[in-house]
Design goal:
Elements: H1 2-30, H2 33-58, H3 68-76, E1 80-82, E2 88-91, H4 107-117, H5 129-140, H6 150-153, H7 155-164, H8 173-202, E3 204-205, E4 208-209, H9 211-219, H10 228-237, H11 250-267, H12 272-279, H13 294-307, E5 314-316, H14 321-338, H15 341-345, E6 350-357, E7 364-368, E8 387-388, H16 393-404, H17 413-418, H18 426-435, H19 442-447, H20 451-460, H21 463-468, E9 490-491, H22 493-501, E10 508-509, E11 525-526, H23 530-546, E12 562-568, E13 574-581, E14 588-596, H24 608-611, H25 613-620, H26 647-650
Parallel strand pairs: 1-5
Antiparallel strand pairs: 1-2, 3-4, 6-7, 6-14, 8-9, 10-11, 12-13, 13-14
Length: 658
């Protein structure tokens, strides 16, 4: 059919041009000059209009024929994002979900959209002539009304990017002619069922494309589980997605929903008793709880939106669903135990995040970005949020001190602080020493998170040692601001985790990877000597044995290869625990954070070591087996070389660095 229509279009265009030529020639020979000029002008205008109409009606996709079969296949295509074990966790296309076949969509859902958008869809051949004429009359009277049926609305989806460039702007009369032409051919080429399938999977819902993703966003169910009232609510959105958004404008959305239900009753689209029941229901929305891998898939989509989606069927990632499932469970338990009922009553929600990565390769293993806020908005607190370092900063101050050679772990606090007296006010120093045990060793002072040690270290560290932290993504430090030694600086949880990874992989900074577009990853940058890292691993394990996390570790076994540092901000507004697991089979670097989006006190007593560290350790003790077909990462470092042994596992990955 396409070939025939294209041929007819070409003939009409040639006929129009021929008409102009004949008119000019005949008038020039047989008429006076003024009359010839007038008739030539009229004939030319008529021929041009005829040509334009023929162009948009018969050649809407340009000189090439519209390929509707290819358009259907292209519309169905979704690039799947899969976890480490091959489990599908989402699609790469922003605002979309997996394609839902028409046979999986209930009849009442189909009826709702047909009633709302094109009630004569099952009778006409792609263009509702009655509807077009009615819209034309109303528009002449100054009342704006659309006239695009379902088949006309999928025109731009089916003709694709190449054909889209050929279509006139939407809303213009050439655009309507092209839509009508494509609509007629869509029904002829694909049939009504496949046309409807394309429509339902691509219709816009305020930035979300497709009925399934909209059903999950607004009602927490899949398209196959929508009720009559819910289906009518979504169908009502299509006319003006922002105005009839059930979350932002519930009153308007309900009024429009009831209008659609009334049409369904008039057309017999659903049993009358079900319609009456739906009309009496209040409008309720419920966002689906994020499934395991949902936050990670959203982060991948955001990255691919910038870099482009690869032309592949799947995007393989290293997300470990078993680990993330354990992290979500433990993080929720922590939130349940810590969240204040009074804060909840005021609409404040205690948030929590957990991020884990392989310290050797940078591949992200778990990604829990927090709960939607009180208004249902989701925010990626891992990449975009800021966590105050608090006492976790001491881990890097001590590392920098050991690296610079300004202290040894067998020294006492008296030894270190006595060398800092030149820049620390003597009176302040005497007061802090009086509160502490001056004979306490550096490693024990670190494990018990003594602020005096942090300030003395800050004063002793040369500017070059502080600048070294810049390579880990730390905000630039000021040697003249001792308060920064107490962790007042902020970083994203993703960057903090990458910094702690350097204490687990032998001293290399490796960028976190959601996915990887290359066959190999660049070697990590060495930031610490291996001897420095060995000292710090001893110190961070001491935190569990006799430091701030000793009570959290009670009754737990298998902690020999785990080290961590806890951090509690002033006023107990944020809790942060970061650390690593040095397992040769499944090494991890991770951070767990809890706090409110608008800072407020979590608890009047307690700290991260007693209230959050137990859940962090439970998560780190989860030991998921390597999936079949995926070799575990190994550590092989040499002089001047970064972590290796992970190239083969990444050969098929597609993706993004952060």
């Amino acid at each position: 059919m396409n070939t025939v229509v294209t041929t007819v279009g070409l003939i009409l265009l040639l006929a129009a041009l021929l008409a102009i030529g004949v008119a000019v020639f005949s008038l020039a020979r047989h008429a006076t000059l003024p009359r010839a000029a007038l008739l030539t002008a009229v004939s030319t205008i008529a021929a041009v209009l005829f040509a334009v109409v023929g162009r948009w009606v018969f050649l809407p996709c340009g000189w090439q024929a519209c390929d509707f079969a290819d358009g259907y296949d292209r519309a169905k295509h979704r690039t799947a994002i899969v976890a480490r074990d091959g489990t599908d966790i989402g699609v790469a296309e922003a605002g979309m979900s997996h394609w839902v076949p028409l046979e999986n969509i209930p009849d009442h859902v189909i009826a709702a959209f047909v009633s709302a958008e094109d009630r004569r869809f099952w009778q006409h051949s792609g263009v509702d002539v009655i509807g077009v004429c009615r819209a034309f009359v109303k528009n002449l009277a100054g009342k704006r009304q659309g006239a695009s049926g379902l088949a006309m609305q999928v025109a731009q989806v089916l003709v694709g990017d190449r054909g889209l460039r050929q279509l006139p702007p939407d809303g213009t009369w050439p655009g309507k002619l092209a839509e009508m032409s494509v609509g007629l051919r869509t029904i002829a080429e694909l049939g009504r069922a496949r046309t409807l399938e394309v429509y339902l999977n691509n219709v816009d819902f305020a930035g979300l494309r497709g009925i399934d993703v909209a059903a999950r966003r607004y009602f927490g169910v899949g398209a196959q589980d929508l009720s009559v009232a819910q289906a009518a609510t979504l169908a009502a959105m299509v006319r003006a997605p922002d105005d009839f958004n059930p979350v932002q404008h519930p009153d308007l959305a309900r009024k429009e929903r009831d209008r659609v239900l009334t049409i369904m009753r008039e057309t017999g689209a659903a049993p009358p008793d079900e319609i009456e029941k739906a009309l009496n229901l209040p409008l309720r929305t419920q966002r689906a709880a994020p499934h395991v891998g949902a936050d990670f898939a959203a982060a991948v989509r955001q990255s691919l939106a910038i870099r482009g989606i690869p032309a592949t069927e799947t995007i393989q990632t290293g997300l470990d669903l078993a680990l993330e499932r354990e992290a979500r469970r433990n993080l929720q338990r922590a939130i349940d135990a810590l969240e204040s009922p009074s804060a909840r009553a005021q609409g404040a929600r205690l948030q929590g995040v957990f991020i884990a990565m392989d310290p050797m390769s940078g591949i992200v293993r778990a990604y829990v970005a927090g709960r939607p806020d009180g208004k249902g908005r989701q925010f990626d607190r891992i990449k975009l949020g800021r966590a105050r370092l608090a006492s976790t900063d001491k881990a890097f101050l001590l590392t920098a001190g050991v690296e610079a050679g300004v202290l040894r772990l067998d020294e006492t606090m008296r030894d270190v602080c006595s060398r800092a007296h030149a820049r620390v006010p003597a009176a302040w120093l005497r007061r802090q020493v009086a509160k502490s045990d001056p004979s306490q060793s550096i490693i024990d002072a670190f494990a018990s998170s003594r602020n005096l040690l942090a300030v003395c270290l800050w004063e002793l560290l040369p500017a070059a040692a502080l600048a070294r932290l810049d390579s880990l993504g730390f905000p630039s430090a000021s040697p003249t601001v001792p308060s920064e030694a107490l962790g007042t600086r902020t970083m994203s949880p993703l960057r903090i985790t990458a910094a702690f990874a350097s204490l687990a992989n032998g001293g290399y900074f490796v960028r976190p990877f959601l996915t990887a577009a290359r066959d190999t990853l660049a070697a990590g940058t060495r930031v610490w000597r291996a001897t420095t890292v060995a000292v710090m691993q001893q110190a961070m394990h001491r935190v569990i044995v006799s430091g701030t996390a000793r009570y959290a570790a009670e009754g737990m076994s298998g902690l020999d290869d785990i080290g961590l540092k806890t951090g509690t901000t002033e006023g107990n507004r944020e809790f942060l625990v970061c650390g690593y697991r040095r397992s040769a089979r499944e090494p991890l670097a991770a951070c767990m954070w809890v706090g409110y989006d608008r800072p407020r006190q979590i608890r009047s007593s307690g700290d991260a070591g007693t209230l959050l560290a137990p859940w962090f350790l439970k998560t780190m003790l989860a030991r998921p087996a390597s999936p079949s077909g995926v070799a575990p990462f190994t550590v092989a470092t040499g002089a001047g070389q970064g972590p290796s042994g992970f190239v083969a596992s990444l050969a098929s990955l597609t993706s993004v660095t952060h």
